[in-house]
Amino acid sequence: MAETILVCDDEELIRWSLSEQLRTDGYNVVEAVNGRDCLEKLKAVAPALVFLDLKMPELDGMSVLRMLREDDSDLPVIVITAHGGVESAIEATRMGANAYLQKPFDLREASLATTKALEDHRLKREVHYLRSRQPSGYGEIIGDSPSMRRLFETLRRLEAIDAPTVLLQGESGTGKDLVARAIHGRGPRRTRPFMEIDCTALPETLMESELFGHERGAFTDAKATKRGLFEAAAGGILFLDEIGELPLGMQAKLLRAIENRKFKRVGGVADIPLDAAIVAATNRDLRGEVKAGRFREDLFFRLHVVPIEVPPLRERGEDIPALVHFFIEKFNRSFSRNVHGVSGRAMERLQSWRWPGNVRELRNVIERTIILLPHDVIDLADLPAELRGEAIRGATRACPFVLPDEGVDLEMVDRGLTEQALARTTGNQSAAARLLGISRYALRYRMEKFGLK
Fold first, then answer.
1. Does domain 410-450 have CATH number 1.20.1070?
2. Is there a common fold for 4-127 and 134-311?
3. The model scores a pTM over 0.85
């Protein structure tokens, strides 16, 4: 059954065009012409999401949003603001809006924002549901192994600390982002923004603008002043994911901002106070990176105030049954399945697998298995072929492959193993390289050689 979306905007053209786009995307749409009309429609149709214009006659969007949140409604809201109304939109996100669109906006952007807001809302409801049934864990993190209990104890000690500087270290897929969100969600800044940036996603020139913002005219495409994440995270937490990938030049600028607790926008002259707690994460050995000259020692020690190691899944095998059942319930609801559980043989194999992609890999395995499962219990034969054929943990490290009499095409084998490693780790190059026992640069060479993306 299609979900219903309420579009509230006093401008008929915008209301009509947005509604038509959402109908094309497969949603049912109800329209409201002002804030009071919106409140009436909310009572009548119980929508899955609301598009809410902030500037309207009779009752403005900010008032409607405030009333929704005062009623403890967690209904996803995407606010619409006129050009120049970014400050109001940011204030709305602090009040609980999921996102904002600035007029004039691209209708494809509205479609993407809708998908993300609905998915985030579903995930939050699932987590709330499962948290009420899962006593072992912390926030959204599941685990009861000794290593996870030590992690949770450290997180509890941080609950009363206003602005801790935390460095999360651990392999790719271990859930460092969940730990960062738990620090925010249980700490004194939980009602303020949580802003996240992936340090591998942008080149250095754009990274500076993304973090610090820029003034109009600071560079060719800077047609308007932009607030950076440091400003948007004011009073909250800024999560710097994959900090080990940050270029050296950007490391110096980040260190200066953290040390001085102030920064300037790109092209600006005024100092802006930095009022955001810094949580950084990396899957690299930063001490080794410092020795190799790829990471600044002074920035390392500035971030290494509260170091937290997130353990790999292979070191907490006793947590795997709880994680498996969590993912089974999650994907049962996602795919309208009724999978009851896992056989003893299958669980034994899941617990003996070395999980180079960690919890992310386990999640993908359970998702794929449930999609393809022809019955209601996961057995050993239902698991992916690579898990069924895994040798016993701790066996000899001799070559696991037997050369056939007719020989092999070594280049084809090289390509095939590279493709499998990237597929196993859902495209994470660091984890894939680790799985193959080569450097990231060697992996990138193979990807370019074989035309893999």
1. no
2. yes
3. no
